Amino acid sequence: MLELVEIDGGPLTRADVVKVARTAARVRISEDALAGVAKSRAHIEELANAEQPTYGVSTGFGALATRHIPLDKRAALQRSLIRSHAAGAGPHVEDEVVRALMLLRLRTLATGRTGVRQSTVETMLELLNQRIHPVVHEYGSLGCSGDLAPLSAVALALMGEGLVHDRTGALRPAAEVMAERNVRPVELAEKEGLALINGTDGMLGMLCLALADLHALLDVADLTAAMSVEALLGTDRVFAPDLHALRPHPGQSVSAANMSRFLAGSPIVESHRGPECNRVQDAYSLRCSPQVHGAARDTVGYAETVADRELASAIDNPVVLPDGRVESNGNFHGAPVAYVLDFLAIPVADVASMAERRTDRMLDVARSHGLPPFLADDPGVDSGHMIAQYTQAAIVSELKRLAVPASVDSIPSSAMQEDHVSMGWSAARKLRKAVDGLTTVLAIELLTAARALDMRKPLLPGPLTGAAVAVLREHVEGPGADRHLAPEIAAAEDLIRSGDLMTAVTRRTA
């Protein structure tokens, strides 16, 4: 049975967004929220019949806002707005992004601050629950005046136009799929066109999804780092809580505690703990993992604060205030979201860079403390994981490029009316690519560290790192002659993305 997420006019949680986007949880709008929608619509209808023009109700849009639109042309105005603004190009974005975008726009509509009709809200809700996903293109949003082109693609489908992916994923005309699912297209009324497209919902949805991914990936990074420390005969003493209390960054303490826990009870670590060990300090990529991973955790924490504020926001222009006033504003500007999307790309690149350095150390016979060159079964005949590290290096280089901020750019639009934009959609798109890249880099470290730990036999890893090796071995064979490595990298990625890797470790803890 699918979970149910209720929109009641108040904030949604990040978990709600992930559930609806990724598990197709059904959505319901409360009766109180629908009553608020009807109340604000009454104010719009009063203004629509008034002689004095109101932006977005009886005027054109953007740089054409000075034109008063007569009553008999306002339905055409709404259709024209959506058709002209649904001007995206490039590949189709993922259905989970479209679902997040639709949910977040619905939440804003349900606040009663936008002036749409109840029937319009209910039809959009039906599209989401019937898993009718409008085609949204990669390019078209400047992250200001809302994610205009992406949201317009959704509004176009609401009108029964354009293309959608049906519940099987097939690409079909919206009108055909809606008729098949008994969803009646909407004929938009005054103000509704703007209300459907004037929000930061696309970039916010992608932020919520990235935050969920990064929470999981940073735990994986702590685990793979601990496995590398163990495989390289490093020390766990540097992860002691009293050392990290001297620099009380919360994320750093969490990562240090994780690494201590993962290494607890390790026979490999114990094997070189005595006074005869001449290893005074480990390399930075081992010793400083909690500092880097912890800083990434704290960056995620700040981004979560921004996301939660946005999830409590009602973003539209103009907006219907509780006293009935309809006022223009600039809340659609994506800067707050764009900045954190860009910010997150920096620690993603750095965490991946550190993981690549640990991997390289395990492959270098001069630095691996007794492991064979490149972890090869028969060095010279076999190359081991030599080229897996090349793949990591290529990805890390790309992640550095993706860490260059999008939000420092701005290209004026709409005849200079919209003369500063956030580029937040672009920041969100590149962060999604960066998160995928980090996943692959950690998957390669997992493969390499597990192979190195197997090569330390008869010494055994600790219970938790051993559990990670064991679950990997259900999908990837242990050390031996060279094999096709790409499927093994993909299998390790799947273990990370599915959560099965951390589940195995957690189960062993319990």
Automatic annotation (TrEMBL):
InterPro entries: Aromatic_Lyase, Fumarase/histidase_N, HutH, L-Aspartase-like, Phe/His_NH3-lyase_AS
Alphabetical GO biological process terms: L-histidine catabolic process to glutamate and formamide; L-histidine catabolic process to glutamate and formate
Recorded name of the encoding gene: hutH
Catalytic activity: L-histidine = trans-urocanate + NH4(+)
Record keyword ATP-binding present: no
Keyword Glycoprotein among record annotations: no
Modification after translation, per record: Contains an active site 4-methylidene-imidazol-5-one (MIO), which is formed autocatalytically by cyclization and dehydration of residues Cys-Ser-Gly.
EC number(s) per entry: 4.3.1.3
Pathway the protein acts in: Amino-acid degradation; L-histidine degradation into L-glutamate; N-formimidoyl-L-glutamate from L-histidine: step 1/3
GO molecular function, one term: histidine ammonia-lyase activity
Site of covalent link 5-imidazolinone (Ala-Gly): 144-146
Protein name as annotated: Histidine ammonia-lyase
SUPFAM superfamilies in UniProt: L-aspartase-like
GO CC annotation: cytoplasm
PROSITE patterns reported in the protein's UniProt record: PAL_HISTIDASE
Family that this chain belongs to: Belongs to the PAL/histidase family.
Organism from which the protein derives: Actinokineospora alba
Protein keywords: Cytoplasm, Histidine metabolism, Lyase
Chief place of localization: cytoplasm
Subcellular location: Cytoplasm
